[in-house]
Amino acid sequence: MSEHIYSTIRKDFLKSLIALLILLMMNFFSWQVMRTAVMNNVRERFMSESQFLKTLMQDRIKGYVQNVKEGKRWFRIDDTMTRKEFDDYFQAIKEEDVGEGMEGILYVAKVTALDKDSFVDKVRQDKATTPYGYPFFNIHVSEEKKEYYVVNYMVPHETFKNFFGNDIGLDPTLNTYFDQARDSGDIIVTPELQLFNLKRMLIVQPIYSGSITAADTKEKKQQQLKGFVVSVLKADSLFDGLLKDSTNPMSYAVYDGKLSEDMLPKNIAFYEDSNETVGMTKKEDLFISISSFTFADRIFTVFFSSKPTLGNGIIERNIPDIFLIVTSVLSCVMFLLMNSFIRIYEDEKSPSL
Fold first, then answer.
1. What is the domain-level CATH number for residue 197?
2. Each residue of 185-231: pLDDT tens digit?
3. What are 302's strand-pairing partners?
4. 175, 239, 233, 180: which is closest to 206 by C-alpha?
5. How open is the CA angle 234-240-241, to the nearest 5 degrees?
6. What string of DSSP letters covers 69-135?
7. Can you give the pTM of this predicted structure?
8. How many domains, the chain?
9. Is residue 80 part of a domain?
10. Is 325 contained in some domain?
């Protein structure tokens, strides 16, 4: 009889043990499902925020470009936009608050060799913003040419006063981009270039006398070119402040150009990161996202990475792990209680010796 009781207890114990193992496996499976759901939620937040930031970047560039296009509207065909009106134009676009990336606006006039002397005299006598004019103005050239791209208007004046009268065409790289804008008839966005003593990105809008379309010949565009409205951008402030309202800890880098395996930090046009290596995958990153957008025929590649604290509200509280521990402990407690009840039940069933 005793042997039968022990055999029954062993069978019931094995059943309880199997039930415990099944419960633990179910707990582990539930833990995996919960953790996957949590990570998917965080990933969705990250990807949504990345797409939102990318849209903000595109809008920011559009804002800078639109400001330059406004300059084309302000310039009238009879070339009577005064220096004072140019200052007013700059103040008007500054009020739109498109970002801190725009450092200023230049008007670069096309001056032919034949018109050089009359142009200099006209600027010297220009008293629109000063009662004395600019008696010492001259075009700073190192060689005589058929035409010059001369910095005439600039705001803020204090920032760019050393550019006054400089010929942008002296720099072969700058001259290439300005000629490209002239021949295309449309806005171009340059990479970061050496603009005299500054290193800046430029948005260049050609200005023509008369009506010009993209279908017009290069010769017509060159003949009717009056000059350029140029927005001077600080690359390190180009996309500044986009994360100020974000609740997701992220960093991002904007590269000037297409994504490639040999893309180096020197290609970074802008980054926002807290003392971390920008644009480089780090083992603590939860997620990364790389995408690109094109504006004015210029490609920008954006590298987003999540910071380790992205999942602070969920991941670092270890809710899935806590769930696994609690349910496993409860399963073990249930296993012990079941065995205790079995022992009590069998003891009651067994006849007294």
1. 3.30.450.350
2. 888 888 888 888 888 889 999 988 878 877 888 999 999 999 999 98
3. 254, 291
4. 180
5. 155
6. HHHHHHS-TT----HHHHHHHHHHHHTT---TTEEEEEEEEEEETTTHHHHHHHHHT--SS-TT--T
7. 0.71
8. 1
9. yes
10. no
